[in-house]
Design a protein that fits this description.
Layout lengths: L18 H33 L3 H26 L6 H28 L4 H21 L1 H9 L4 H31 L1 H20 L4 H12 L10 E6 L4 E7 L2 E6 L7 E4 L5 E2 L17 E5 L5 H9 L4 E6 L2 H10 L8 E5 L2 H7 L4 E6 L15 H8 L2 E12 L6 H11 L4 E6 L4 E7 L5 H9 L6 H10 L1 E2 L16 H15 L6
Parallel strand pairs: 6-7, 6-9, 7-8, 9-10
Antiparallel strand pairs: 1-2, 2-3, 3-4, 4-5, 10-12, 11-12, 11-13
Amino acid sequence: MGARKRDSGGRAPEVQTRPARRLLWLFAALVAGALAMSLEIAAARLLAPYLGSSLQVWGALISVILGAMALGYAIGGWAADRSTGDGLLFGAILASGVCQAAALFFAHPLLRRLAHWPEVAATLAGIVGLFALPTLLLAAAGPCVIRLTARERVGTTAGAVNALGAIGSIAGVLLTSFVLLPQAGTRATLQGLAAVSLALGAIGLLPRRASVAGLAAVALLAAPDREWPARTTWTGESIYHVVQVVQLGRLRGLVLDQEVALHTAIDVTGGGRTSGYWDDFAVGPLLSSGHRTLVLGMGGGASIHSLRAADPGAVIDAVEIDPVVVKVAAEQFGVAPDPLLRIHVGDARRFLTASSDAYDVIQSDLFRGGPDIPSHLATVEFYELARGHLRPGGVLMVNVFDLAPGHPLLSSVAATLGRVFPTVHVRSRNEMNHLLLAFAEERSLSDVQAALDAAPSAVADIAREVSRAVGPATYGQNATVFTDDRAPVERLTGRMMQTARAAGMLPER
């Protein structure tokens, strides 16, 4: 079956091979490229609930995958020169499928342990342990195909095979990102990738090792599903997030990716009352004179519930990038479009760029999935854009999560706002949640406190609590001012989370 002998010069002589077999080899190169990139995308989604999806996580993930591919190319080329036939090619693909199936068994127990490690170290360990070997084996397919198909025109053959692998990689990225993960979910996607690897390997090896593929397929189908944390009542996936709805006593919460963070918490037994820092968004209407509000980062809509408690007649535009979260907000948290609420699906900055509307209050509660503020939504340029949409007397409310000693991230966001707004005050609810109040005009602290102390009874308790705790936002000379050119938000957040993990400060669900 495509066997060949080496001549004395180490060259592979002409082999009489059926055209169908050659097409199968080329198809294997195409599929191996698609599988390798699909594994990388699916691996990122698998890591997200435990480690997040920061730039550092992606950097570590891509580095390991590229390292595994480089090693696979080298080992595959070396082994191809010492093998006969195409057993090595299809054996490597089959072995990759077996490794992928095995990873489904060990992924969640391993990642649960690694979740307490520093972010980069955990990512490196998780990817090496789960996906380095299957990626290496897939990468080895390319040199094998070149060796099998090359004749005198080795350069042309190598170019064609590499092009097929690249085309497959593009197809794998697009298919996994836009179809498989959103429609099927992470586990089903990984099962499908393993099944394709097993099937292709078995087809090339039949009938020699079909039994191995059969046993691996049985193991694949028996792989346990993810054990979601207790109190999880709904799960789903989108192109942005692993989405969970959790029930915590009377509170219903929204979790996006990392399970240590809640992005919404509403008392569903108490008429939609909020809990935690979302309560503080109720003071926005008290600090402005109008009723137009823009909510950037709607999530499950907790801040909208708070806002309406203070201003039932507020006219609201809400922006949320994830359509699945918008759906969950309506079905699970009672926040759906109505005559006073328009919901826009899209990126907050792009919305501001395209909009010409002006607002009295702008809420900014923007996070990627864990504690990370997307860097392009925390810069001088972004806040200048937001200020351009504020009416005279308006206020921008920015939520910041920072529990590191000295609060370096909070100081940097405050310093950045200070470049754009004449007055910035802060209300720190605890060591974690901080609400920055940036005013379009000069606004004294006493004036802010007086407005809060005059709050209507519906939100009087919250307003008085904020009034007692609010103060000028301070930051040292070493605070970083974020710009579009340089915004190390993720580095500061990563350090903060590493310190918090080491000190046992992260909140438990």
